[in-house]
Q: What sequence folds into this?
């Protein structure tokens, strides 16, 4: 499937979730359940980030400058903080962990600060590029 087709699929898939939610006027008010985040992360990276977080800005700028589409979820919303913590602790298989923002989900992999951010972003870019080339062949 080509990138526009994937984006259209994701848009159609998420539209039913978005319409079902009561969105207020807060910017970045998208909230996904754990199941929704798991499903959508099979197609696009999901980035949980905090306003004013330098590492979050670095990650989002890296993804944007490399033409990588992603779903941004704001940690200003309590629902997103709860799901982000569930995702990170599930990945670590324990509840007492140190989490550095941003938390990024892509496929079955969760980044929560366990390796240097730039190293992870380079690895993520490679995985996405590999997936894109395998879908165009």
A:
């Amino acid at each position: 499937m080509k990138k526009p087709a994937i984006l259209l699929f994701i848009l159609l898939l998420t539209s039913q979730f978005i319409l079902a939610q009561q969105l207020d006027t807060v910017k970045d008010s998208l909230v996904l359940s754990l199941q929704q985040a798991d499903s959508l992360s099979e197609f696009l990276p999901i980035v949980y980030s905090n306003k004013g977080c330098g590492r979050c800005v670095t990650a989002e700028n890296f993804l944007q400058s490399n033409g990588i589409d992603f779903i941004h979820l704001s940690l200003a919303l309590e629902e997103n903080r709860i799901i982000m913590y569930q995702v990170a602790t599930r990945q670590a298989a324990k509840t007492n962990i140190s989490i550095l923002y941003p938390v990024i989900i892509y496929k079955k992999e969760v980044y929560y600060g366990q390796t240097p951010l730039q190293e992870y972003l380079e690895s993520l870019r490679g995985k996405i590029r590999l997936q894109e080339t395998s879908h165009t062949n």
